Amino acid sequence: MTLKGKTAIISGATRGIGKAIALELARQGAKISFNYLKSVNEALDLEKEIAALGSCAKAFQSDIKDFGAVADWVNKSKETFGGLDIVINNAGIIRDKALAMMAPEDWLEVINTNLIGTINLSRAAIMTLLKQKSGQIVNISSVTGVVGMPRQTNYAASKAGIIGFTKALAKEVAAYGIRVNAVAPGFIETDMVGQLKDDLRAKLNAKIPLGRFGKPEEVAKAVQFLISERAGYITGQVIVMDGGLSIS
Ligand code: NAP
């Protein structure tokens, strides 16, 4: 259990990739503080699931777009668990549409959740990490932020923004023993891609050299690697995990 005694704060862990990360880090012994927007029952279930693993977790309902609510969540987490070591910026949404048809609310909701949400949680947590001169931050970007995808201008901009944010913050805090990295997944089997019709899914699989979508647990393993000592000389980097989609 490599993370025994550490506390991780994870945005959007009630489902999908965030949940897999929470479970992976809990298995490594970390105490987990996570937030969510709507999924109250899933949040309570995850608290129980992590307790059954022998670790502890606390769910907080707070909107990642709201800096005040996020700062309050971070403060309550520190009171609950007595510290903060690992920050995972995972909460994210899509509102896919051609730019010509995109309403301002679709644009703003995606940027505010994905990019501003990442800045909100990082800003609320960073003083604690700076003062203790240690910490790990991992941001969940997307392959779309690296190569771009049609109908995802809002999402691609938010995820490319996260990559710039990761690199700038990594340089800013490296002298304090804090590493900041990003993971850029391709198509991962979660609710976010669950609506895709079978024929589109088959077409996408044909474009992915490994011939399949990824699993949330595979993303969680990459996150676990980045926060581990094995990645002790890695900062400001983006691991693209997309089954080869971006090189095909
Ligand atoms: P998901 O299954 O839709 O889960 C999204 C999570 O974020 C949920 O826990 C949700 O909480 C939370 N959330 C959404 N808006 C929030 C808000 N305003 N405040 C707080 N929490 C909020 O998504 P996913 O597929 O696991 O994606 C996780 C991350 O990976 C996202 O950043 C996404 O962009 C990125 N990603 C996903 C894929 C993919 O193919 N799935 C690919 C590349 C990158 P509720 O349950 O309460 O709604």
Write the layout of secondary structure elements.
Layout: E1 7-10, H1 16-27, E2 31-36, H2 40-52, E3 57-61, H3 67-81, E4 86-89, H4 104-132, E5 135-140, H5 144-147, H6 153-173, E6 178-185, H7 198-207, H8 216-227, E7 238-241
Parallel strand pairs: 1-2, 1-4, 2-3, 4-5, 5-6, 6-7
Bound molecules: NADP nicotinamide-adenine-dinucleotide phosphate (NAP).
NADP nicotinamide-adenine-dinucleotide phosphate binds at residues 11-18, 35-39, 63-65, 90-93, 113-114, 140, 142, 185, 187-188, 190-193.
**Integer-rounded radius of gyration:** 17 Å
Kindly report the spatial arrangement of strands forming the biggest sheet. Answer: 3-2-1-4-5-6-7
What is the CATH-assigned architecture? 3-Layer(aba) Sandwich
Order of helices and strands: EHEHEHEHEHHEHHE
| Total number of beta strands | 7
Number of domains: 1
Low-confidence stretches: none
Tally of helical runs: 8
- Mean of all residue-level pLDDT scores: 97
Alpha-beta content class: alpha/beta
Largest sheet: 7 strands, parallel
Q: How helical, in percent, are the residues?
A: 40-55%
Specify the CATH class: Alpha Beta
Cα-to-Cα separation, first versus last residue? 38 Å
